[in-house]
Amino acid sequence: MPIYDYRCSECGQTSELLVRTSAVPACPACGSQRLDKLVAATAPQARTPGIVSRARAQAAKEGHFSNYNSAERRRIRSR
Ligand SMILES: [Zn+2]
């Protein structure tokens, strides 16, 4: 099972969470499920458009959707 970094939209807590495929992770600090998945490995280098678009493509492949708007998320998830 993969481990991802999440930032809570409610309290701002950043947490490393083990994610089961079908589970929605919750913030360990406040219990909120409004979590943004952080792309920890690529974020520090995401300064040029080419790197950003590669990071987006890689993120989509891995199931990250925080860089996409809701219409794009629906399209990706329906595949
Ligand atoms: Zn929280």
Describe this structure in words.
- By secondary structure, this protein is an alpha+beta fold.
- It has two domains: 1-38; 44-79, no CATH class.
- It contains two helices and three strands.
- Strands 2-1-3 form a three-stranded antiparallel sheet, with no helix packed on it.
- A hairpin with a 5-residue loop joins β1 (3-8) and β2 (14-18).
- The longest helix has 14 residues, at 49-62.
- It is globular, with a radius of gyration of 13 Å.
- The site of zinc ion has 8 residues, from loops.
- InterPro entries: Regulatory_FmdB_Zinc_ribbon.
- Residues 1-40 form the Putative regulatory protein FmdB zinc ribbon domain.
- Residues 56-79 are annotated as: Disordered.
- Pfam families: Zn_ribbon_8.
**Helix and strand run:** EEEHH
Q: What is the first-to-last residue Cα distance? A: 22 Å
- Count all strands and give the number: 3
Strands side by side in the biggest sheet: 2-1-3
State mean pLDDT (0 to 100 scale).
Answer: 78
Q: How many domain regions? A: 2
Radius of gyration: 13 Å
Net shape: globular
Number of helices: 2
Major sheet: size, sense and barrel closure? 3 strands, antiparallel
**Class by alpha and beta content:** alpha+beta
Hetero groups: zinc ion
Which bin fits the share of residues in helices?
A: 25-40%
Strand content: 15-25%
Please describe the structure with a list of short key phrases separated by commas or semicolons.
single chain; 79 residues; alpha+beta; 2 domains; three-stranded antiparallel beta sheet; 2 helices; 28% helix; binds zinc ion
